[in-house]
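Figure 3 (text version): structure tokens given as input.
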């Protein structure tokens, strides 16, 4: 690329001296490709440039009488790149180039001006080169080359930052979805811990009562105690896992804050992919009356993902899901509408009960039926309520949450 770019040049009044784009390509390549070895690369460029210019002169441009005369001037390009490479190498260009700074720009300007000066001295008499007007042209054109190098480096740096920001955003969104799913498990583990605590207490009370009865067969009392001890051990393991998950989620939560609009967009994006995986054409619509920064990201994501995924599963073929967010005083109201299969009237009183389901796999295996029960439990843990309303050709789940528990202060 550098060799080809050397033939794109500006001719000045400094004898046969030329300012080519090859400088821009070479220095930008060394600046961007950190694995390049400067001296060997410059040597290859110098040899190739000399061969190209000599070949062009010989076959296309010069009469044979002038060829031997002009050939003496074509090695100046090779001298230029070798001299430039030595300056860059000795000056520690790669160390300076780690950050785009004023020091780097000044160093490049000095190196390019010095190299252009050496090439000019090879091509033309020194008296002509060191005249004030010619020196000014040389410095100005060298600065133009450095400006182009810096511009390309800035553009490249900006593109890298843009790509990294996009990758970070995608990674963060994936992490949020995983974390919200972990929050589901966390909620049930907390309930399991409470259940184990109750079982342990009942087993120990049973042991004490059996012991007080002074039965001849003491194995029953021992068995009750063993049950209490086993449940206690299981509870300790569960509490350890619970603490680890809680700590991990707390660390993730501190990394970044999100607005309600960003959370809703993430829910839509995730569930759009889910609907496509089910070969369903689902249109999503979002209305937000008031945006706010959210303090409880994971539980809110878990609630919305469950409701929206349920809505998608209820749709046959094509349909829509509408999400509407509004604030009424101290309450945040989030409604999820869909035009999927209606829920039978006799089932409406049971939809929030654990284990109840209307979904079956193609093999007739029922779903676990914990989605809506989980949503209800999670909403109520925040002091809120979840409501269901059926309309003609549409059903709606509404979540009411206290503003002070959701919004960030």
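Below: residues designed for each position.
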């Amino acid at each position: 690329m550098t060799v080809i770019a050397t033939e794109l040049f500006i001719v000045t009044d400094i004898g046969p001296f030329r300012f080519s784009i090859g400088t821009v390509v070479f220095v930008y390549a060394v600046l961007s490709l950190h694995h390049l070895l400067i001296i060997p690369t410059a040597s290859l460029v110098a040899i190739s440039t000399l061969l190209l210019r000599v070949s062009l002169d010989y076959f296309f441009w010069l009469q044979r009488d002038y060829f031997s005369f002009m050939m003496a001037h074509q090695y100046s390009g090779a001298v230029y790149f070798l001299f430039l490479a030595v300056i860059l190498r000795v000056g520690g260009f790669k160390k300076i180039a780690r950050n785009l700074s004023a020091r780097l720009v000044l160093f490049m300007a000095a190196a390019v001006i010095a190299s252009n000066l050496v090439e000019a001295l090879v091509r033309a008499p020194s008296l002509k080169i060191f005249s004030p007007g010619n020196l000014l042209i040389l410095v100005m054109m060298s600065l133009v080359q450095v400006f182009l190098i810096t511009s390309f480096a800035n553009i490249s740096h900006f593109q890298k930052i843009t790509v990294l920001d996009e990758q970070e955003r995608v990674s963060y969104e994936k992490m949020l979805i995983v974390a919200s799913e972990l929050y589901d498990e966390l909620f049930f583990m907390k309930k399991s811990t409470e259940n184990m605590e109750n079982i342990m207490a009942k087993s120990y009370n049973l042991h004490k009562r059996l012991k007080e009865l002074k039965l001849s067969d003491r194995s029953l009392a021992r068995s009750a105690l063993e049950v209490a001890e086993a449940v206690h051990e299981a509870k300790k393991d569960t509490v350890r896992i619970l603490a680890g998950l809680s700590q991990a989620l707390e660390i993730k939560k501190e990394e970044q804050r999100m607005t309600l609009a960003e959370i809703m967009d993430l829910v839509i994006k995730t569930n759009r992919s889910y609907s496509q995986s089910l070969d369903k054409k689902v249109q999503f619509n979002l209305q937000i009356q008031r945006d706010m920064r959210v303090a409880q990201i994971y539980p809110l994501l878990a609630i919305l993902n469950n409701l929206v995924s349920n809505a998608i599963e209820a749709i046959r073929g094509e349909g829509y899901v509408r999400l509407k967010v509004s604030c009424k005083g101290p309450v945040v109201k989030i409604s999820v509408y869909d035009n999927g299969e209606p829920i039978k009237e006799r089932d409406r009183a049971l939809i929030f009960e654990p284990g109840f389901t209307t979904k079956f796999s193609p093999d007739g295996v029922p779903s676990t039926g914990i989605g809506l029960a989980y949503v209800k439990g999670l909403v109520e843990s925040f002091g809120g309520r979840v409501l269901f309303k059926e309309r003609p050709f549409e059903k709606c789940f509404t979540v009411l949450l206290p503003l002070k528990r959701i919004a960030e202060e």
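The chain has three domains: 2-130, 169-255, 258-406.
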